[in-house]
Every structure is written in structure tokens, then in C-alpha cells.
Amino acid sequence: MILRRSLTLAAGLALGLSLAGTATADGHDMARYKDRFEPIPSIAPIPADNTQTAVKVELGKMLFFEPRISASGVISCATCHNPALGFADRIPLAVGHLGQVGERNTPTVLNAAFLDAQFWDGRAATLEEQALGPIEAGVEMAMPLDEAVQRLKEFDVYEEMFNTVFGGDDPINADNVANALASFQRTLITPNSPLDRYLAGDEQALSDQQKRGMRSFVDRGCVACHRGPALSDSMFHRIQVPGSTDLGRNLVTGEERDRHAFRTPTLRNVAVTYPYFNNGQVASLDEAIQVMAREMLNLELEEDEVADMVAFMHALTGDMPKFSFPALP
Amino acid sequence: MILRRSLTLAAGLALGLSLAGTATADGHDMARYKDRFEPIPSIAPIPADNTQTAVKVELGKMLFFEPRISASGVISCATCHNPALGFADRIPLAVGHLGQVGERNTPTVLNAAFLDAQFWDGRAATLEEQALGPIEAGVEMAMPLDEAVQRLKEFDVYEEMFNTVFGGDDPINADNVANALASFQRTLITPNSPLDRYLAGDEQALSDQQKRGMRSFVDRGCVACHRGPALSDSMFHRIQVPGSTDLGRNLVTGEERDRHAFRTPTLRNVAVTYPYFNNGQVASLDEAIQVMAREMLNLELEEDEVADMVAFMHALTGDMPKFSFPALP
Q1: What is the DSSP letter of A166?
Q2: Does the beta carbon of A137 lie under 8 angstroms from any beta carbon of chain B?
Q3: Contact B105/B270 with Cβ under 8 angstroms?
Q4: B242-267 as b/e, with b when 16 or more CB fall inside 10 Å?
Q5: Greatest distance between any 2 Cα atoms in chain A
Q6: What angle do CA A197, A203, A207 make, to 5 degrees?
Q7: Residue A88's Cα: distance from chain center in Å?
Q8: Residue A73 is nearest to which of B62, B95, B322, comparing CB atoms?
Q9: Which residues of A are less than 8 Å from B65 in CB distance?
Q10: How many CA atoms lie within 13 A of A68 on its CB side?
Q11: How distant is the Cα of A140 from the closest Cα of chain B, in angstroms?
Q12: Catalytic one among B140, B147, B160, B295?
């Protein structure tokens, strides 16, 4: 504790930050900590080539819940990105077509709109590029895209909606499926977390323990990678968590420097998107934080500090998106 | 047409029904047709030994969406009884654990609370008796009940909720899982269908074609079995639809008279709970009506009459239950 406080003070002075800002009961200037975080935007960045309309979002929602674009007819995006489970699945490794077990943990799609790299290995840059992968993947929905498109064409409702949204000669096509899915996913934002309320000026939004955790998160350097509105830099960092031999980003680029590198996951809603890491082998935030400290910072954290950081992680849970079930044709 | 009208008139006179009731443009007295139907109740019958409370319904909803009581961790009741698909799955045969294909079509749980026999073969009489079957069934969720119960016990939220709802020494047990699921399912009622609005006095709620279909439905005798609030007598009738060799009720009772007998399915929401019959091999209402006419009535219906009855079937779609996704622990 003494060491950490000294470092904090030194860092504060070195950055020339005022000590006259918001102070906590134990004398910490919180303003410089707040400055290291960004509130979650209320709308996601929308690409110029996929403008967002209400009906496109509704179509995307339907497709997100549509199991008939899977080979079995019962798996949809929402199977693994389950709205009841933080838009993830809360099991270590994704389970898909015929019960096959995948090699990685299902990332939440909540706030994925704020990431500049999709999938654990960043093999897609945008939500549009990402959207079709799981439909085709043999261990996920296992459906060739042309068959998925054909199946959608059987429904008048989809014909009408694709026509309204996209127009053109043959509006039901793979690109438009991706565009609609991406538009829907851009609405999956979780505002109003305790952290966001705190950043907006509600001093009571975080407990004292959460404020201590917030300071540790900054002082220990976690915020170096877990930064920006989604608490992810969308960059790749080498890490081998216990039990993982996954080459990660290297499988995409072939670069030696990318061996075992993974895109920084968002920490938004991390308390409800367990288990953790690319292989989903860590079930608790407590252990996840200790693994990160060891692997990335070469640190053994004291129990109290871990508990503070766990408390802070709970301050990153926002309001889940509210929407009714789509009525599929 | 002449034959049917004569029969209708004769039946009306035989029953001593007044001809002074609501008449249609083509001179039909609709009052005696209306008398053959029951509006859908706004609440389901609640058994004395499973009283209904808001928190019990909420718990049941959580369990209904809970995939972690399946062996794979990704299949829940809502997988096959999908709220986006009329609480059924819209595929011919149910697909469950490891992609195994079952032998029967998934029945909707909508308005199942009004049935006195559950499953196609009526092997459960009540929703409570029905609820645990699919969890254990090897081709569905494939989870031994004691393991399902153990898994639920891992979550503090479930401990608290079962304790609040049921109390007692060991409230998380299979019986209480069934009780909560049944309570939730009793809320899955679909009011306000065109038929219900028509029965309540809105003469415009049915089109002329739907009124003709309604008369055919009565005059042809469909209403003999498809009667009561759910348009099912909850009784068993022998029928071998195309492609089916399923012994049905006989597999439960061993009785010769039950060979190929199935419980009358509800016709509520039949337009959105395709495909049809125990083997799900008929995709359209049009064909389903013709199969029923042939199999049960030994009749070949004219196209126009079939179209009228299809139109009437569309009048049986009510408002889908409105509820938000549960937030699972």
C-alpha cells in the first residue's frame, strides 16, 4: 500500500495534474483517475456505407434470432450470444452445430460496436466483416451462405423487408445479411454503468472500495490496454493464460510477433460475461485479475487489492439493451 | 355447398336454436356458430398445490431460458419453445442434444395451460408433470435431474429465489423446478385473436371469408375435437398422417385402441406454429386441413372451402406474451 501511494503521488506530480480536484475520504485526487476513462457513448459510430434505419435494425434483430439460417435449424446468433446471459454463453468454450465444442470462449457482442477488431484474433475489422463468419463456421451454425440466403428467400416477410431496407435487384444477399446484423449489433450498448454515472458527476455511484479498485486499475497500468469507451484498445497483446496453447493472432497474420496474441477484450459488463480469457478456463473475476497481473505485469497482487479491483469490475455493468422478441415469419 | 347448407339448417333446427341471431350478408345466423366456441380466458386455471406468485413466475421464466441445466450448456426450454417462433421451433422434428433429431414435432407451449393432457401422447397430465421430461430426455437437454438441480445450487441468485418462493429445508429440488416452470408457462396465453374479438361482439373482427371458414369448421365437425378455450378436447384420436408410423398414445398405455392415437393439438396460433402433425411433415395450413378432412372425416374438400378454413385458422392467432429477457445469474 505504501509503495502504491507513493507511485500514485509521483505519477500525479509528474503529469502536472492538479491535486485540487475531487478528493476521496482518504485524500486521493480522483480527477486524474477519472481522466483516464471515457464514458460509453449513447450511440455507436455508424459507417458511411451502412447507414442505420429503424427497419434495418429490426431486420437485423430478426436475423440475429433466426435459427433457420443454421444447418440444424435451431442455432441462431442468439444461441451463443444469449441476451439472457450478457450476450455471451457463460460456458468455457462455444458449443455449436451437433454439439461440437469450439476452441475459444464466446465474446459478448455488447458494445462490440466500439471495437476496431472483431473476434479474439481480430480476423474481422468491422461488425459487417464479422457477421457472416459464425453462420458459415462448421462448429457454429454450419450453414453455407448461399443456402442461408436461399432459406431467407422462402419467406415473403424477408423479401419485403430486405426490399424496403436495401432495394436493388436481389436484395436478399450475404452482404445485406451482414449489413443488417451489424446494424442491430450497433444498438447493443449498455449505458448507465456505475462507472459512467461516476464519470458524469455522481460521486456516490462508486463505493469507496470501487474507487480504490479504479485507482489500482490505473496505477497498475491495466488502463493502458483496457481503455477507451469499451475499455479495450482493440490491439493485440501476447498472453498465454493457463491451459492455452492457442496461437491467436498468429493464425491470421503468420507473424512471429503475433504468436499467442489476442485482441484486448472489452471490460464493459465483465462481471456478467464470465468465464474469462480466450479459452474460458477462468471462472471468477478474482482469479482473472490475478492471472492478468501475473501474465501482463509480472505482479503478485495482495488479496485486498484484488478485491478492490473485482469491486471496480462490477462497476462496469451497464443497463442491458431492452427489446422485445422479434416475431419471425 | 347445397348439401352443406341443408345440413346446417337441419342441425340448427334440430338443436332448437333461434334463427333471429346475428346474420351475415349471405343470410347465415352466426349466433349458433359462435356458441360452439369459447373465448380464451385471461388467466389459466391454477392448481391448488401450485399457487401462482409474481416471483414464482419470474423464477420459472429464468429456468425456461436457463441453458445450463442442459448437458451441453446451450440448450434451454426456449431453444425448441422459441418465443420468436410461436414458442415452437418451426422445423419438422425437434433437434436437441448434440443435434439429435427427435421423433416428433415440438408442440407450442402457448396456451398449454388450457390442456388436460401434455405431450403428443398425453404421458403427462399437467404442466408440472410435463416440465421435467425435456430436461432429462437424451435427445433434448440430456441432463440428469440431480445434476440440473446441483447446477442451479451453484448460483446464489437461485438459492435466494427458490428460498423466497418455496421455503423449506432444501428448496432447490426437481419438484420445485417443475412448479416454477409450470407457473411461468401458465402465463403464456395469447388473448385478443380475431376469433376472440368476434366472440366478444366485434362483427368486423372476422372477414367474410373467415366467417365462412368458421361455419365450415363447425359444419364439417372439426369443432367436435377442436373445442374449448384452446380448441382442443385434450382427448386422444387415432390418426395416421402421411409418413407417420408413430404408435402415439399406445406407447404410453399399451392399449390396442390407442395405436396411432394422439392428443388433439390446440389450434390457437396454428398459423404461426407450423409445420403440422406429430411428425411435422406438413408445412402448410392448406395441406394440413386437407389431410385432416381425409383422415378424420373421409372427405375431399373443395379448394374454396379449404381456403375459407385457412382464413379462419389465421383468425386464431392472438397477441404473443410480452416479456423481457430474464437476466440469468
Answers
A1: H
A2: no
A3: no
A4: eebebebbbebbeeeebbbbbbbbbb
A5: 69
A6: 90
A7: 9
A8: B95
A9: 82, 84
A10: 19
A11: 12
A12: B140
Structural domains of chain A sorted by starting position, each given as residue range(s) with its CATH number in brackets: 2-42+191-314 (1.10.760.10), 54-185 (1.10.760.10)
> Number of C-alpha atoms within 13 angstroms, CB side, residue B120?
24
Per-residue pLDDT in tens (0 to 9) along chain A, 329 residues: 344 444 444 444 444 444 445 666 677 889 999 999 999 999 999 999 999 999 999 999 999 999 999 999 999 999 999 999 999 999 999 999 999 999 999 999 999 999 999 999 999 999 999 999 999 999 999 999 999 999 999 999 999 999 999 999 999 999 999 999 999 999 999 999 999 999 999 999 999 999 999 999 999 999 999 999 999 999 999 999 999 999 999 999 999 999 999 999 999 999 999 999 999 999 999 999 999 999 999 999 999 999 999 999 999 999 999 878 899 99
- Chain A residues touching residue B80 (CB < 8 angstroms): 74
Query: For residues A14 and A109, what is the distance between their CA atoms, to the nearest angstrom?
Result: 38
What is the number of CB-based contacts under 8 A between chain A and chain B? 70
Does B90 sit within 8 Å of A68, measured CB to CB?
Answer: yes
B140 is catalytic: yes
